[in-house]
Amino acid sequence: MKVFNHNSYNKKQSSFGKIFRWCLMFVLLLSSFTGYSQDIKATAILDSNSILIGKQTKLQLSIQYRVDGGKHLKVEFPEIADTIRKEIEVVGQSAIDTIIDKNDPYLFTQSKTLYLTSFDSGYWAIPPFKFLVNNDTASVLTEPLLLQVGTVAVDTTQAIKDIKGPYEETYSWIDWLKDNMYVVYGSLAAILITIIIIIIIRRMRKVQPPMIVVEVPKIPAHITALEKLDKLRTEKLWQEGKLKLYHSRLTDIVREYIEDRFKIQALEQTTEEILFGFRNAAVDEESKRKLKQVLILADLVKFAKEQPLPDENETSMNNVYDFINGTKREDEITLTDKTTKK
Predict the structure, then answer these.
(1) DSSP classification of residue 175
(2) Is residue 26 part of a domain?
(3) By CB neighbour count within 10 A (0-12 exposed, 13-18 middle, 19+ buried), where does 126 fall?
(4) Which domain covers residue 201, as residue numbers?
(5) Which pLDDT does position 203 carry in this prediction?
(6) Average pLDDT over residues 79-93
(7) Which of 163-167, 237-241, 270-274 has the lowest mean pLDDT?
(8) Residue 336 lies in a domain
(9) Does residue 184 share a domain with residue 122?
(10) Which of 80, 114, 138, 336 could form a disulfide with 133, with the two C-beta atoms 3.0–4.6 Å apart?
(11) Per-residue pLDDT tens for 34-77?
């Protein structure tokens, strides 16, 4: 008698269910992909598939798809580099343009234009362009294209000729005026403004009396220096213990006198530079010696904190008087005497 085995029957039924479910998933996936393929269409069209070497042509990439029934599509255009292949260069490319069909609001068309050129003659195949759909769960390819790049026919039997010169075009003064209208108007305005200014200046000259310029005679350098010395002596600075201030004022007076009298930048020079500048000056040796004593003693007081004796302080003052009186200009002396007599 044959016994029915329930366990083996259940195992067979379970295996059959798994196979059925896998087949059902495959059919659904295939139908989904088939739906994408039916709803999505990618094209690549050349504006001209034959160009001369160095010329350009347009390649339009477009993809058409439907979005209805709650379906979500994410379409990605192919990445375009500077070259499609080494013989074909991409000169430029436009932005992506999206168009919605007027009669079908669920039908979309996206497109962009590539500008191609080639500097190699021959027949060059352009491979298909791949559009990604929903992050590459499905992809759509365009048809491959063929671009012919031809060269310019050259008749080798003819002699080589020079390059043709530019075409000559008639150019009259009227054309020049049209091209330089702003320059002409600006020049006329400038001339008119200049004429008006000249007229106004002439009228003002007739009305206003002539200006009288009074030239003030320049005070001689030794007069200014001696007046400053007299004032310094009356202040009695060294007698009050202000030795540094006294010798600084004294050397400033003599340096200003040297600048005005001998045109030497004494205020900006050191003692050594001033004495070196007087080596070839028309000054007697006694005056040079007295100037040296004044400057060196002042340096010792200002920088070495020297404490001169009262006689030394008074000697410096007298030496400055002697130096100024011994080096003043003769023409300035004569001018001063005449002014005094008047």
Answers:
(1) H
(2) no
(3) buried
(4) 174-207
(5) 80
(6) 92
(7) 163-167
(8) no
(9) no
(10) 138
(11) 444 457 899 999 999 999 999 999 999 999 988 876 667 788 89
